[in-house]
Amino acid sequence: QMTLIESGGGLVQPGGSLTISCTAATHTFSHYHIGWFRQAPGKEREFVAGVQWNGAFPYYADTVEGRFIASRDNNKRRVYLQMNDLKPEDTAVYYCNIITNWGEKVPASNSWGPGTQVTVSS
């Protein structure tokens, strides 16, 4: 029951870094766990990272573990995904969504924002 807007995507060379953001329009944002998901062309949307309501205990998909860092600033109503050592297979549209329970890798809602395109290419 919240609108989330993704931003910060762009074109990055392999091995590069990029940080994308997820911003909520209301103060209730701070009450929710937030997850990052992505969808590449021809593939299903998949879980990337999750972060607890207070920013503690982020968790990640195996494919990004050790490379991506999820964090949040509730005063700014914003969740971040810092992506390091980017690979071509990271190319996708990245989305954020609510997660009901910490540790889950599925969204709580079937409603998605516009996403932000991340392209990793030379």
Q: What would the principal axes of the Cα set say about the shape?
A: globular
Largest sheet: 6 strands, mixed
Strand order of the largest sheet: 2-10-9-4-5-6
Number of helices: 0
Distance between the termini: 39 Å
Summing up helix and strand content along with how strands pair, one would put the structural category as: mainly beta
Radius of gyration: 13 Å
Q: Give unreliable regions as ranges.
A: none
Roughly what is the average pLDDT, rounded to an integer?
93
The helix/strand series, from N terminus to C terminus, equals EEEEEEEEEE
- Proportion of strand residues: 35-45%
Percent of residues in helices: under 10%
The total strand number stands at 10
Molecular structure report:
By secondary structure, the protein is an all-beta fold. It contains no helices and ten strands. The chain has a six-stranded mixed beta sheet with strand order 2-10-9-4-5-6, with no helix packed on it. A four-stranded antiparallel beta sheet has the order 1-3-8-7, with no helix packed on it. Strand 7 (68-73) and strand 8 form a beta hairpin. The model has no long low-confidence stretch (mean pLDDT 93).
